[in-house]
Fold:
Amino acid sequence: MKKLVFAIYALTILSCSSQKDKPLFDMPLGVQSYTYRASFLNSVAATLDTVKALGITEMEGPNPKNISPEEFKKMLDERGISMPSIGLDYNIVTTTPLEAVKLAKTFGSKYVMVAWIPHGKTFTIDDAKKAVADFNAAGKVLQENGITLCYHNHGYEFGQYETGTLFDYIVKNTDPKYVSFEMDMLWAFHGGADPAKLLLKYPTRWKLIHLKDIRKGVANDLTGGTDIKNDVALGTGQINVPEVLKAAKKVGIKHYFIEDESPDHAAQIPLTIKYLKSL
Structure:
């Protein structure tokens, strides 16, 4: 009997130890192509070689302006980098959704992401209502062609509306069959939201995430903009990254894209990757 009790105790200790040692971030490393917008203009090949050397195997596109989608896809394939998602302009997606479908299929992408809703100085309920109608219509076309439309939050949507925010309005009034979401953790935080809690609030709607952190001391606002130098390596800014990753894992996000708009991204991205692997 004592041997049995000891065996059970030993297995329990081993189980707890293995859980403790299990990395928090164990998904494929991805990057948003906008991170390398300046580098791509100098050399697409050299930039992609750098991406590959970092151990990155996924990229959110689309292609840089100085190379065709077909050629860029070929170069990605040669380096073992896939493109599960592409980001496109609101007007392209909402007025010519079949063009978005065509480009997504060129890259083998399953998601098309829109990161900005056109609006004036302040994002209003009328802007939100128009976006809801446009996203539902375009998302239906994309869904019928095997592509999922995702809206990427940008911070200005967290203004108060009724008992929640304008972002809540967008989520609740878009059709889940046609419209999903990409979490940008920096912009959610900068707009005054808690990225981890927001993921858990709508657990079935999120498909993708941008991994970003914001410099300590930067105040939140609803502009949807901040100096690009305020993008910092993960774990050095204001955001509770482990809590966001736990929430992202819980809601089933499969694609994680590092996005670093800073001019110091070349130095910061290796630090971000090292931090992610340390968790």
